[in-house]
Amino acid sequence: MKALKRSLLALAIAGTFAAGAAQAQISDNMIKIGVLTDMSSLYTDLAGAGSVAAARMAVEDSGIEKRGYKVEIISADHQNKPDVGSALARQWYDVDKVDVIVDVPNSGVALAVNQITRDKGKAFLASGPASSDLTGKACSPNTVHWTYDTWMLANGTGGAIVKSGGDSWFFITADYAFGLALERDTEAVVLKNGGKVLGKVRAPINTQDFSSFLLQAQASKAKIIGLANAGGDTTNSIKQAAEFGIVKGGQNLAGLLVFLTDVHSLGLATAQGLIITNTFYWDTNDQTRAFAKRFAALDKGIYPTMVHAGVYASLLHYFKAVEALKSDDGTKVIAKMKEMPTDDPLFGKGSIRVDGRKIHPAYLVEVKKPSESKYPWDYYKVRATIPADQAFRPLADGGCFLVK
Known about the structure:
This protein has helices spanning 2-22, 48-62, 82-94, 107-120, 150-163, 177-192, 211-220, 232-243, 260-266, 268-271, 286-298, 306-325, 330-339, 388-391; strands at residues 31-37, 71-77, 100-103, 123-126, 143-145, 168-174, 196-203, 224-228, 252-255, 275-278, 342-344, 348-352, 358-359, 362-367, 380-386. The protein has two domains: 24-148 and 284-360, Rossmann fold; 151-278 and 362-391, 3-Layer(aba) Sandwich (Rossmann fold). Helix 2 (48-62) links the parallel strand 1 and strand 2. It is 43% helix and 19% strand. The longest helix has 21 residues, at 2-22. The N and C termini lie far apart (64 Å). The chain is α/β, with parallel strands linked by helices.
């Protein structure tokens, strides 16, 4: 009996040492996640509280806490202001000991957070922002750009529309980093395919009245009015275009970044026929449907957008890298994430390139007519799958200093 007790005690002590070793390089014995998002403005439904819910689901589904790691999630509203986002990022890294910032649905804020993260040696998992500069001229060894970007949107939606005859464009562009990058990347696709740009106008973020911009677009006689905006700006411009009879007058709208929540807000009667490029749709398979059902219960009945999916999937991969290294050192974890192949229930198998670009397929989808929708949030039909090796900008073309 005494020998048995000694053996059990030895095992218990060994287990304690093993648990301690597993967390020996975890700063403050805690993996701390900061969800920096839009909680109160035009991106709140497509990200917002849903991104916090997705992060919590990732912690639970990873099982990392059951293996002895402590995880804490905090969140804040960046108000779509780079100075506010920058101040929050510095506070989190320096005072609150946050290890990784996720989401950030605003490219201006994201580019600022990207630089601060690099300076502090932390980790940034960008699911919300779109600017392809995050893996181009502003690339960082501390950032993974997970979900989508402006190059993908331009070459998916823009390319498909130009090839189907939409060869003259007028842009209504959100006047900040995201909109300018999306306009730039889409204009390049239009011109490359023999089209022309007849004009462009810049609208402040969170514009309520698009009438003057829409009248300029209408007067241009362009076949396609390209909406280089997102969230509430996109839904407002589409609704007001309907009031002006723009589509009935023979011009077409190209929503260059339209989310599932935007379609829900517009309603199928207004949104039907829109062509959208996406990297995640909740109704793709049994795994995505199961995720969506759980998610909706946590986020006011809202079904997950690709931003929510990106928060979840990027954190699952982040946790795998942390456990493989037994460290939450940001620079080392991002390097490990690039080294390891990705595999999760929402995006499937993929990889992360040296420039930080996460690679997976994209989907060209069309918004269904009301008569085609069979159940709540049944909004898309897939027109084409863009293979992973074609969905994003070629590695050599981005100008990232990490690409040798």
